[in-house]
């Protein structure tokens, strides 16, 4: 039998018949009258008994298949005239319309690119203006800080000169009781000469990876696969797609900050402190302001527990906060609904009043004050200017109502984290159960954290078990939070991811605060009240 390959060889040996000719190309005196279906060629009677004799079973008379082929031709004509020709005409018209629209389309894209460039320039100018404004503000703040430091030194000098004179007088004329009282007074005071104020408050580091950020700010192209190689070889970018160019968000973005945690907390200092502490605000000089709600007092102590300064107020001091730019202390009084600032003369000055009951406050980077207020059936965060003008307001999301216990702002992103009272899933058995909520710098809700990732005895902590008390951001943008249920200090990332349990206390935890350099001040309650200073980063 002839194979298909064999047939191809045979067909290659046949003479070619002209289209429409009835003469056999091999036997020119004969007409073709048969179809050899094996070879799919028309043959004459002579071919049927010679070169095609082995295909006799596949022969058909041409006259008998005429109608069949005529029908095939008619079907082709019908399909061509009714379907394919009109479709081709439509496609030609459509392609010409696309061609006519091609130039305006790319003209529009070109205009958008130029517009985006102009907007990027405006944004860059705005960023430059913002940076220059920061520079001016930091210059004023540093100048103010140095003036305050000088005033502090002068006050200390005057106090020391006067006290020295009094001591001389006591030595000469004082009785035993006066001598004793004077010695006790001296021991309770801090006469250490304060270190020169650290004026290295900030620095500007020019960005190095400008190209990628500028490309991201300009936008991205969506290109067909078959053009990507051509674009790449011609020097064009073959980035991913974009429909509407998106500007690079310079505010509120979480920068990647690398850090190394210590295996265990490193104790920097520890001392007994028998008094109650409502809140802790460490200063940049290694000291801390401690408030006591019960006695309406605020004390400034050094890292050995020695008293530096004491402020007595005539109303309840609910919570304190330090202005990150000036270092001045602010505090809120719940009963009076007032917000106060401690002036350079160490005298509290009332700055404004609040509508709700202020339970907490935080002076943020722009010199504005975020206050946690409680009212009738509602709990709010309110952002004020220094003179009491309301800028932003947010209702704290919760299934129950109660005060905001703690507020802190991130120096990296500007985000604001709070710990507020809530009732988890309507459970009123513990009405003081809290939640950790994070907002952007304009008090837009970002996310809640309920202890996801924290493990206790190899079991995950359920939301009703997590009870944050005090929250503070560190310089890495991470959140340090106390868990009142488990008596622990937890480290959470700025995006709400559990990192590590820093400390487990045997008894109830007190308040905490963060000093420059990520030194953690803690009020630990183990038998006797005391304060410990820890470091948890190794870098």
From TrEMBL:
Origin: domain of life: Eukaryota
Record GO terms (molecular function): zinc ion binding
Keyword annotations from UniProtKB, A to Z: Metal-binding, Zinc, Zinc-finger
Pfam families found in the cross-reference section: zf-B_box
Domain called B box-type: residue spans: 19-55
Keyword Zinc-finger annotated: yes
Keyword Flavoprotein: no
InterPro entries linked: 6-blade_b-propeller_TolB-like (IPR011042), TRIM45/56/19-like (IPR047153), Znf_B-box (IPR000315)
PANTHER family hit by this protein: BONUS, ISOFORM C-RELATED, MEIOTIC P26, ISOFORM F
Entry protein name: B box-type domain-containing protein
Organism of this sequence: Mizuhopecten yessoensis (Japanese scallop)
